[in-house]
Amino acid sequence: MKIGILTYHRVCNFGAQLQTISTVGFLKRKGYEPIVINWYPNDLDKLYQRLISKEQYDCHIDFAEKNMPLTKLCQTEEELTHAVEDNNLDAIILGSDALFRYLPISERKIFSKRKLRFVDNYTSDQILEGNPFWGSFIPKLKKEIPIVVFSVSSQSAPYKKTNKTEFVEIKKSLERFNYITVRDEWTKQMVKYFIGNENINITPDPVFSFNQNNYLPIISKQKLQEKFNLPEKYILLSFRLKKTDKLFVKEIANRLIEYGYTPVALPQQERLMDFGITNKISLPLSPIDWYYLIKYSDGYMGERMHPIIVSLHNAVPFFSFDEYGTTKKLIPHVNKFAKFSWSSSKIYHILAKADMLNNAVSTKELDKITPKFVVDKIFNYDKQKIVAFSEKQQLDYENSMNRLLKFVDLQNN
After folding, report:
1. Is there a contact between 33 and 119 (Cβ–Cβ < 8 Å)?
2. Minimal CA–CA distance to 266: which of 235, 305, 229?
3. 283 near 274, Cβ under 8 Å?
4. Rounded to whole angstroms, how far apart are CA atoms 57 and 300?
5. Fewer C-beta neighbours within 10 Å, C or N terminus of the chain?
6. What is the H or E stretch that residue 34 is in?
7. Based on the number of CB atoms within 10 Å of its own CB, is 75 exposed (0-12), middle (13-18) or buried (19 or more)?
């Protein structure tokens, strides 16, 4: 059976590409033929070309083209529909990743100080019209096939700010799908808000099963150390936002050195912020090297969700600087008067399940921690608890995907 995968497979993001590899690998392992629908709209492509260096951009594109079973490139809904039909797909899995990242009409403008007026601030993957992540292509298919959604996130989308017309359209979009699971509590409540379904399951990100699903060559720790000139004992620090004070990070690095570990600056795909740390990994960097750099490390400190999932999956000590969460503006378009909720974060959701919230802080609340607190969390790490949690997540992922595939098989018989 040919199963299409529709997700953020081509974007310049390490975690997004690894979750695609994991989904492809799972389907191969189960005897299906996975085909990644090569959807990459022009405006998203231009956005990443603007945000990412050419060398790193080329690295992500090359990674997708060499390692994923891709259709022809699709940049319009018509091209995507043809790709589904030309490849004679029997079903499509949407996910994982933040495919339901909807931005209400009321939130689509920001004030530009340079232009002294409100300007549009959204991309085509944040709206409904022409967006295949919301199933806009489904009515145009000549043959009806199961379209299922697995472990998607809304990235804390402010869904309650939708107007009546938007509500009706989103409800219609969600009801097109035959099966839905989500990645976090916020997205579960979002789906429930629109279609009233209480039985939406929360399922793990595919990277929680990467070691089991990976079909790419395994890189040994020795080869990785030789390639990046790494010492035996190293801890990664990885930031892209400028909210973290340079002296704060430097003090963390100095404390790590006192414990006998080498601090190494790991880049985000956008840039390397080394904070004056001597040992550093430079861009361009492939997603698979990025994965093994974390897997073989003695600790990770930094931003974003997928590094935390990689750490949990491999029982690597970590401390998360979490940039996610919702901000409710008490005065529209004025950030000064706002109420922040960290509990809406997708990282918060995972760490709450793992009973590891003490190993994280919101980047809006950095004044609540010290460098000593962060370092202590790395060296007072309950590995046994994390191994048990990781094994449970992997089993949950395996069972959840098996249920999804059983549903797809029944629909096609």
Report:
1. no
2. 235
3. no
4. 24
5. C
6. strand 33-36
7. middle
Instruction: Please provide the DSSP assignment of 101-145 as one string.
Output: ----GGGSEEEETTTTEEEE---GGGSSTT-GGGTTTGGG-SS--
Beta bridge mates, 341? 326
Please classify residue 102 by burial: count the beta carbons closer than 10 Å to its beta carbon, then call 0-12 exposed, 13-18 middle and 19+ buried.
buried
Cα–Cα distance measured from residue 258 to residue 352, given in angstroms and rounded to the nearest whole number: 31
Q: Report residue 200 as tokens.
A: 């939406």
Q: pLDDT tens across 139-198, in order?
A: 999 999 999 999 999 998 999 999 999 999 999 999 999 999 999 999 999 999 999 988
Enter the tokens of residue 34: 């996975």
* The predicted structure's pLDDT at residue 122: 93
Q: Is the pTM of this model over 0.85?
A: yes
- All structural domains of the chain, each given as residue ranges with its CATH number in brackets, are 2-214+395-411 (3.40.50.11720), 221-381 (3.40.50.2000)
* Residue 287 vs residues 67, 238, 272, 294, 338: alpha-carbon distances, Å: 11, 15, 15, 11, 36
Q: 358: helix, coil or strand?
A: helix
Look-up of token digits 């995507």: 80
Give φ, ψ of 217 to 5 degrees.
-60, 135
Q: Which of 190, 208, 209, 210 is nearest to 200 (CA)?
A: 190
Q: How far apart are CA 206 and CA 15, in angstroms?
A: 10
Q: Tell me, what DSSP letter sits at residue 254?
A: H
Q: Name the pLDDT band for 329 (thresholds 50, 70, 90).
A: low
CA distance 310 to 314: 6
pLDDT at 321: 95
**Amino acid present at 103:** L
Q: What angle (nearest 5°) sits at the alpha carbon of residue 28, between those of residues 27 and 31?
A: 90
Length of the chain: 413
CA-nearest of 82, 61, 63 to 71 is: 82
> Quick count: other Cβ atoms within 10 Å of Cβ 243?
12
Closest by CA position to 6, among listed 38, 49, 51: 38
